[in-house]
Amino acid sequence: MERPAWAPRSIDITVPSVSRIYDYYLGGSHNFEVDREAARKAMEFMPGLPKIMQANRAFMRRAVTFAAEEGIDQFLDIGSGIPTFGNVHEVARTARPDARVVYVDHDPVAVTHSQAVLAGNERADVVAADLRKPQEILSSPQVERLIDLNRPVALLLVAILHFVEDADDPYSAVAELREALAPGSLLILTHASYEGIPLPPKRAEGAVDVYKDIRNPLIMRSRDEIARFFEGYDMVEPGLVPMPHWRPQTAPEDEDPYAFSGFAGVGRTA
Fold it and tell me: CA nearest 233: which of 191, 189, 263?
């Protein structure tokens, strides 16, 4: 397989990547046949996966717009993935032209592409780091340059926590990030769950097993388990709900049934 110019030498292009699979679901072009094969295999069990990802992105844009309209002009997006149209910095600057954004990902492809997209952008940057090591993120030169932790920040953990196993204690990582944020900061979060999927759980498990096979386990948590990530936050209305129900711009009943898989919410620090 020929390595395209956008693929860093450090990555193994024969192994599927969660970021590139996600890119494929969204109709992107930065993925390989090995990623498409894994995605198609997962879709054999759960054909609505692209609809779930589209609903996830639509929620993110609504939540970022909400944060910007609430006066927040700093955004920390952890697990940002490969850049696609309508990124956080583009959405935020529609309402706040002075918005500052730091993207964080541990996937070399996602980081390389973010660097290319953000070249020459003085108000946005990217950090190669892992959610499981919050201090590496918070003390990075990019965060120190662009994010003032003494003022409110919108922290995005969108479609990332379900790739962190319980053994890695994602709750402690989220709590550590919360402790670093100023009062009035927002947590914007989505998470996969068996709840809401229009399929028998046994069939949905087939798609989950595909991620396990590529050594990126997908952890499907219950609504109550997802709600625990918001400890220390006051939930913004309408609370923790299926993605189409969070401040919709179109009628939720018009959405594809798969869009209601999993949960989304926004919390505010006191």
Answer: 189
Tokens representing 54 are: 């589209």
DSSP codes, 76-91: EEET--S--SS-HHHH
226, exposed or middle or buried, with CB in 10 Å at 0-12, 13-18, 19+?
buried
C-alpha dihedral, 126 to 118 to 181 to 230, nearest 10°:
-80
Task: For residues 223 and 264, give the distance between their C-alpha atoms in angstroms, rounded to a whole number.
Answer: 10
Q: Give pLDDT tens digits for 127-184.
A: 999 999 999 999 999 999 999 999 999 999 999 999 999 999 999 999 999 999 999 9
Question: Peptide bond preceding 238: is omega within 30 degrees of 0, i.e. cis?
Answer: yes
β-strand pairing of 100-105 with 263-269:
unpaired
The span from the CA of 82 to the CA of 30, in Å, is: 8
